[in-house]
Amino acid sequence: MQSPSTTITATIHNSNLTPIFLPKFPPNPLRFRQEFFHRHRSVSMASSFGRFKVNSKMDNSSDGFLTITEYAGKGGVNVGDDLVVLFSHLEYAFKRIAALVASPVNFSLGKSSGGNQEVDSGRDKPKPLDIVSNEIILSSLKNSGKVAVMASEEDDAPVWITDNAQFVVVTDPLDGSRNIDASIPTGTIFGIYNRLPELDNLPTEEKAMLNSLQSGNRLIAAGYVLYSSATILCTTFGSGAHAFTLDRSTGDFVLTHPDIKIPPRGQIYSVNDARYFDWPEGLRQYIDTIRQGKGKFPKKYSARYICSLVADFHRTLMYGGVAMNPRDHLRLVYEANPLSFLAEQAGGKGSDGKNRILGIQPVKLHQRLPLFLGSPEDIEELESYGDVQQTVNPGYDV
Ligand SMILES: O=P(O)(O)OC[C@H]1O[C@](O)(COP(=O)(O)O)[C@@H](O)[C@@H]1O
Question: Residue 342 in contact with residue 236, Cβ under 8 Å?
């Protein structure tokens, strides 16, 4: 009989993981790289924006996992040097945030949004993690030299960084941070647009705002980072959704989930159903119906709700079903648009219950709306109930 450690080692070996607590294995098998090349060898990866195409040189690549830089770079989908540089700076920010949320230093930072009120004299009040994460991302974007403006959920107004840089970045630096004291997964969400040169002559505040209020249809890239048992960066450049897992032994994000396809139909719904009595009739009926297995899919649905949007969305992408927040709570610019872009790139849908999210023109930076993300058949069935947006919003303590 094998010893437990032999069994664990074998299991990990077979699943291509390289944990830091075990001796390093020989180079990782070729599986993901080969799969990726095989799938994309002659396939046009042009997005609806018509920008990115696979470079055929990828066929001749060497062994091992594909890093995100390789994927995005000249040997991969070739999104352009500027975007590759921007991504490498974003990656650095995400690694710093991943380290921070997992660090004992959290406790001295004051994890919760309220921060630590008790401070020794002469010492600054610790900043909550969402503020620190915001600063980390802003500093990376500044260092990249590629970003004209950043709009963040943590800032009242967009920050103009530099003239003539190509990109606009919108972000929720640390979503789900209210859960962090319990070490529940959190995430970063981001979207990238091209700067609109036609606005260049406007006053700074105005051009910063209008560049940030672009419709989701114009996103050229988007993604989220899940800080959980693994740190996963799931991204799209408009040519499918791909997830990269942080290999802590090398510090690289490596392609582990190429070309994610959300199941057309899932069996999981994700919602804060303590709000049931504030829901409109249509939403109650929909949930009652699928719970009982009386919907179009004749199986009883199961509920999962982490209350951390990135984690709930990631699970939905992997397993299918629908993740929702039916009240005006989540932000169009920072959350709904980037995640809807990813959902669509994976074959899913993003809706406000009536309309496609990516078609909505933002009118305010911090605009909130109901959000439904998930499998196409589930979203279509939900929308067919008509009355699914929660308009009663009394304010909730937790
Ligand atoms: O309280 P609700 O309606 O369940 O909302 C929970 C949602 O709010 C969030 O915590 C985001 O809220 P904040 O933007 O206020 O941090 C999501 O992560 C989560 O999905």
Answer: yes
Q: Is 247 a catalytic residue?
A: no
Confidence tier at 198 by pLDDT (50, 70, 90): very high
> Whose Cα sits closest to atom 4 in ligand 1?
272
> What is the set of domains in the chain, with CATH numbers?
68-257 (3.30.540.10), 268-383 (3.40.190.80)
Ligand 1 atom nearest to 153, measured from its CA: 14
- What is the whole-number distance in angstroms between the Cα of residue 325 and the centre of ligand 1? 8
Q: Could you report the predicted ipTM of this complex, rounded to two decimals?
A: 0.96
0.90 surpassed by pTM: no
The tens digit of pLDDT for each residue in 96-139 reads: 999 999 998 776 665 554 444 444 444 456 678 999 999 999 99
Phi, psi (rounded to 5 degrees) for 84: -65, -45
How far apart are the CA of 120 and the centre of ligand 1, in A?
32
Ligand 1 atom with the shortest distance to the CA of 130: 16
- Residues flanking ligand 1, CB < 6 Å: 175-176, 178, 272, 307-309, 312, 325, 327, 329, 396
